[in-house]
Specification:
alpha+beta; SH3 type barrels; 1 helix; 5 strands
Length: 88
Amino acid sequence: MDTQLVWARDAVEGYIQCRISEIGAKDFEVTPIDRKYPKRSCHVDDIFSSCDGPQDHDDNCELMLLNEATFLDNLKTRYYKDKIYVST
C-alpha cells in the first residue's frame, strides 16, 4: 500500500513528517518518519500535504505545495544551512 507523505501538527516540534496509515471520517492515524515519535491520531485539520525529499528554495513561491508546514520546513532547512534570506 502506497501511503501519502504528510506533515502532522505537533505541540513541541510544530510539524512532524509522517505517512498516513489509516483514514477515518475525521481523524487520520499517522506514522512519523522519525521513529522517536509515536504513532498518533490527528484531526483532518492538523494534516498538511508534503513533498518527498527536503525542500530548499530561496523563494517560498517555488514550493511545490505551499502550506503552513512546508513554509516553516523550508525556512528551518535554510536557517540550518545558514541561508537566512528567503523571498516570498
